[in-house]
């Protein structure tokens, strides 16, 4: 059940209000996580900003605002040499910025969640600084709504975990197919709301049929349980793990796209060490496309990898 004012709804109200009250080229709320800054909602006139558009955090103007190198309102970015790097990156993308506005949105513990930003192609008059109080007020509002919405989401997740027996695979203790599908359905809207970094990982055991055929199904069951336990130890608490049926497993990892490759390598390494080799592939979850597209991409890549591995085994 959603709270009376969900975070994404509050973000939309804030950027739409600013777009009318303080008309810049674009206003947006962004999420900062896993080394990236990603747009969650935007009121855009000039830049083509939309949900899912992002850039590396180290290449953004917001980074210097957060570190205190530059102020929250810069009427003319050309006067700030500290912004030379981000300006060069923006210019390479044909993303001219003459004036910048930014302020942090924070978690209750003070950790950075993201930013509320405004951009304009041309510099603004120095009197533009008078909007700093309004900016502070609106960013504080969003931080408060974020806290309330996050608490509501955490409570709902705890309740869902408490009633999930019917969604658990009895052999491995992981989610079953039904639990996996319902988890994706429940989390889809939450993920779009907060823009959390995530990747879908699809896995298929290479040797289960051989174990069943040569050692029997009891040995095959032990093989599956060993795989599940290995995956539990190798994943973060709270990241869902599922046995989708037979020898197929899946998970959602709360990591960004830059960490997807190392994640696959680490999973394959620990599974090989447990003598449960597995074909593993991953796809990032986009704010706009969601889980369905990521599942489809990871699944297709995993089966392609499995065919290639079978061919390699046959030639060796």
TrEMBL record:
Q: Which SMART domains match?
A: GGDEF (SM00267)
Classify the source by domain of life: Bacteria
* Entry GO MF terms: diguanylate cyclase activity
Which ranges carry the GGDEF domain? 196-316
**CDD domains the record matches:** GGDEF
Task: Identify the PANTHER family for this entry.
Answer: DIGUANYLATE CYCLASE DGCM-RELATED, REGULATORY COMPONENTS OF SENSORY TRANSDUCTION SYSTEM
Kindly provide the name given to this protein in its UniProt entry: Diguanylate cyclase (GGDEF)-like protein
Q: Which organism is it from?
A: Actinomycetospora corticicola
Provide the taxonomic classification.
Answer: Bacteria, Bacillati, Actinomycetota, Actinomycetes, Pseudonocardiales
């Amino acid at each position: 059940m959603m709270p009376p004012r969900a975070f994404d709804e509050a973000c939309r109200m804030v950027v739409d209000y600013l777009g009318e009250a303080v008309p810049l080229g674009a206003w947006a709320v962004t999420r900062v996580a896993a080394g990236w800054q990603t747009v969650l909602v935007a009121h855009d006139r000039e830049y083509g900003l939309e949900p899912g558009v992002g850039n590396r955090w180290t290449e953004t103007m917001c980074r210097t605002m957060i570190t205190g190198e530059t102020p929250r309102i810069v009427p003319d970015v050309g006067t700030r040499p500290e912004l030379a790097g981000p300006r060069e990156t923006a210019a390479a993308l044909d993303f001219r910025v003459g004036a910048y506005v930014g302020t942090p949105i924070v978690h209750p513990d003070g950790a950075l969640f993201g930013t509320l930003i405004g951009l304009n192609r041309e510099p603004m008059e120095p009197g533009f600084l008078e909007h700093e109080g309004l900016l502070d007020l609106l960013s504080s509002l969003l931080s408060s709504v974020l806290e309330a919405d996050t608490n509501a989401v955490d409570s709902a997740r705890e309740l869902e975990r408490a009633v999930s027996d019917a969604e658990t695979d009895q052999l491995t203790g992981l989610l079953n197919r039904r639990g996996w599908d319902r988890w994706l359905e429940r989390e889809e809207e939450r993920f779009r709301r907060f823009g959390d970094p995530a990747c879908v990982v699809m896995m298929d055991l290479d040797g289960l049929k051989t174990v069943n055929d040569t050692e029997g199904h009891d040995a095959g069951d032990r093989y599956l349980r060993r795989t599940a336990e290995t995956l539990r130890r190798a994943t973060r608490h709270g990241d869902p793990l599922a046995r989708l049926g037979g020898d197929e497993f899946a998970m959602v990892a709360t990591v960004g796209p830059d960490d997807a490759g190392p994640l696959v390598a680490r999973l394959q390494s620990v599974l090989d060490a447990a003598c449960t080799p597995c074909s593993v592939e991953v796809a990032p979850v986009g704010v706009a496309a969601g889980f369905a597209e990521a599942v489809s991409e990871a699944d297709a890549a995993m089966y392609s990898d499995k065919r290639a591995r079978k061919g390699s085994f046959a030639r060796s």
